[in-house]
Amino acid sequence: MLDHRLLHSIIIKFAAIYAALTLVGLLIGQVTLTLLLGSLVIVAVNLKQFYRLVVWLWQTPQKNYVSDNSSWDHIYYGMEKIQRANRKRRRQLIHSLGEFRQGADALPDGVVVYNQENNILWCNSQARLLFGFQWPTDQGQRLDNLIRYPAFSEYLAAHDFEHVLLIPSPVNEDILLENRVIKYGLDQYLLVSRDVTRIHQLEEMRREFVANVSHELKTPLTVLQGYLELINDSDDGQRDPSLAMAASAMKLQASRMQSMVEQLLSLSKIESAAQASIQQQVSMSAQLKMLKTDALSLIGERDLVIEFAVDEGVDVYGDEAQIFSACTNLVTNAIRYCPDGSFIQVLWQRCDGGALFSVTDNGPGIAANHLARLTERFYRIDQSRSSKSGGSGLGLSIVKHVLVNHQSNLNIESTPGLGSCFSFIIRPERLVKVNDNKRTKEVS
């Protein structure tokens, strides 16, 4: 280890050299000339040592230095120590990088690393299979030049990576890829691509099955309801009371099944709707006026108070039927499950994040363990209560899918014994902006 002794040694060595030069100069009577020539020799020797150091560093740094017992030995030894440490660190990094790449190659998903200019830095073997990359030929190529889909190029340019992008594989269009981008480091991005073809096919099969079964059930239910109504209309007062009770129960259950079939068909249609096609201008004030009329009709003679607070100047872009269905389901649920004497408030107004729709009641509330599952199909908190209210267990599932199609989500807040609040926010880019009495869509 170097310390102050090295400096002392160098000082002593130079002092001895210059003392000898001075003595020689005194002997020959040329002290100044002797000191000058001696200094030039010292400079020349050190320049030679410096040249040797540069040659050694650039040409043969892997060879061990052969000591010549000069002061420069300490520099060579220090450089050798640094180089040994660097070589060891480099070997460790290469080993770690190799292990990382082996692990990344073992992933079932495609992984592509690219920079801010969309140039590919690295990709694993699965990405090469899914996208057809040639490695290392395609290293440094622009990602959007190799994956030539307009939607993909727009996705990269927008830098809005909160949502995934579905595109077909450039190698095989029958393969559907789910793509997600993650930003990390200094202007570097990670594209993770997953083959979701099978999942998509199963989802399509499920939707088609539900839609087909629901459609096939409509005809027999309609016939059954017709005959039950005929039985009730032909009552001459002499029918067995038990038969009348059975016919009434059958009619009620048939009506419930008819409502469930219609909701299943509606849900299937909503799930299949494309977000890009939802571009209608919807007058929310008109929708909520119709909803208020329907709500008062549903309440009828019950002791319920419902209040609508509507901002008349807030309209949206979306699917009119879907939005009305979502709002109707939330209000209908509040009416069905609130006991007499309850108060319900329906609110539509601007807020910081866009526009807020909420349905708040002071009914029985919902326990916290049920909240996460309320939007599942056919999920019921209380089977007996759902049967009495006529609910199908599909209403909130319909609301959830409508909101997904409109880039929103359902928020549920509830406290047992105090009431519940069901709400959602429509984002600013879906609100209609009024300029010079002309309504135009805001550009996000």
Features:
single chain; about 450 residues; alpha+beta; Beta-Lactamase; Heat Shock Protein 90; five-stranded antiparallel β-sheet; five-stranded mixed β-sheet; 13 helices; 14 strands; elongated; disordered C terminus
Account of the 3D structure:
By secondary structure, the chain is of the alpha+beta class. It folds into 3 domains: 4-96, no CATH class; 107-195, PAS domain (Beta-Lactamase, 2-Layer Sandwich); 275-441, 2-Layer Sandwich (Heat Shock Protein 90). It has 13 helices and 14 strands. It has helices at 4-28, 31-59, 73-105, 125-131, 143-146, 150-158, 197-233, 241-272, 284-299, 320-337, 368-371, 383-389, 395-405, and strands at 110-115, 120-123, 165-168, 176-184, 188-195, 280-282, 305-310, 316-318, 343-351, 354-361, 411-415, 419-426, 432-435, 438-441. It has a 5-stranded antiparallel beta sheet, sandwiched between helices. The protein has a 5-stranded mixed beta sheet with strand order 7-9-10-12-11, with helices on one face. A hairpin with a 2-residue loop joins strand 9 (343-351) and strand 10 (354-361). Helix 1 (4-28) packs antiparallel against helix 2 (31-59) and helix 7 packs antiparallel against helix 8. Mean pLDDT is 81; it is low at 436-444.
